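Please check the following.

. . .
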Amino acid sequence: MTNEYKLSVVVLVYNTEYYLEECLDSLVNQTMDDMEIICVNDESTDNSLNILRQYARKYDNITVIDQKNQGGAVAGNNGLKVAKGEYVAIIDSDDVVVEDAYEKLYKKAKQTDSDIVAGKPVKYVSKYQRQITYKNNIWDEERTFTVDEFKEIYYDVFYWNKIYRRKLVEEHDIYMIPGKIYADVPLVFRAYSFADKISIIPDVVYYWRRRAQEDIIEGNSDTSVSKSLLDIPNMKDRLSTFYYAKEYFEEAGLEKYFNYAIKTYMERFFYPIKGILKDETFKKAYLGEIKAILSQIDELYDNNLDKRYNVFFYFILHDMDSDLEDFLNFDLDERSTVTRDGKVYWNVKYFDNPEYNIPDEVFEIKKVEDNFINIDDISSDSKYIYFNNISLPQNLGIREVKASFVGLSKRDTLRENSIYDFSLDETGDHIYNGKVNVGEITNINNYDVHLKVIYDDGTYELFRFKERLFKKSSNEIVKLNKNKNLLFYFTSLGNFSITNGYCRNFFKYKVDGNSMILLPQTSGAAIYKVALIYKYDKVFFTKVDESLNIRLQNELELVWKYSIDENTKYNLYVEIHQHQFKLKTDAFVDFKEETIDYNGKKIRIFEDTDGSIAILLK
């Protein structure tokens, strides 16, 4: 086997014309040299093939394979089988690779002689990064290991955030299963099983595009190939992952890890479960398939899953179909717990009930779940955001609890620059309170607000504040915001977020007879706009110097001749997703009133009566 390239990237293409150029641009602009790009078009019916051919004419390291429609698995295999790189990668054509990702992954592979190197992925939703939160934060630190040393790697079931040694792929037939929709997990599990050495780097390497709502892979969108809740072949395809994985572990002599690995994936087997409430044929097929799987898993109730899954397991294994349906309809959101002999249990109606006679272990809570987080409210005043009476279950080995503000970040910006963690105080028996000084949030942004629970062993989990966790209604919570520079709101999915429209000393500025330029003083993501507004008239600052037709790095400019009318007093506003906040003078470093000569007139920049910045041409 000869290697003509350092890396071969196989791109799976099917009807992604709206995203394909962004994907290909991220590949041809990689900082890594000596890389081939193999694009496999699975008989797209849109303009994807024409786009591929345009790029292939422009870049001599791009190869296009145009195959009859056979599915993504066959497309991936066909690309892998013609690859000539020392390492190979497989990606989806609606996603984006970070510009220096492959350089970093390959460098790590050579340093450590690893068969597989994985990096951190993030969700890519409406041009913004969103964190992928998992039970184990496996991408948080750099490490090199075998599966014996770090079995938590099985939580990472994605194929596209990795590079694989081509020799490993070819010698152990690490290919996708033809015709299988959910072909990613068997491939990744097989690769792990035969790899001698694996590495992880903590750098973000991959933007995983999520369309429509939040999680297409969970069947929440009609545009997804995994869309149908009642599609029996689709359901069986999903569940067949169990049997392929079991076979691979046995072949590699790693049977001892199979139970652990399959439990990391178990939640996905239950994505279709609510289909049993809608169709009797689907119900019979699904319950038969899933029961056969559950009966083969050792120590089934010893897992890291939410408690609802244990109840699913018990009802299914004991053919308690009507109770399962009742549970799905009425009891999933039961929030009460009870402590006995130092152990915490889910106090759902089936617990300690002789009518059901279910063992206590099914209901034992061993970790925090959002179902068991209770919050009085969140409020604010002119200086602080208050987190009031957050209650967590006892005896779960919790070291510390924090409020985590995760700001929106666009592509190719460091998310870490927009994340703020604030410790909460334990003021009672696992009751947490705290106040966050708004001035310590040093970027104007939208923030997803999470509860960060840090355990005694140093691991942590993030829980999004959701409407159902609060004792008050969403409308009541929103009204508890008394800070004019903040906005409390709940997303369409019921998630709590805060918009911060003000930061002290946020901008420097300079003015002359041509324009006003703002220079942000933060390294965080800039998702805001700045506008000059008078009543219904609004003119935005831009990132383009129109006189020179060049882009200004991080600078915002307003050219006077396009922007202001005589004898009209304008104010400066920050706008974030259509919400506007007046800019006060203390948002500027060393603000001072100025008068500028402009075409024989005067532009006056001054402090208005409410402390905001006003601009007047006379």
Q: What stands out?
A: DSSP finds 13 helices and 36 strands in the chain. Residues 255-269 form the longest helix (15 residues). Residues 259 and 615 are 67 Å apart (CA to CA). The longest strand covers residues 198-209.
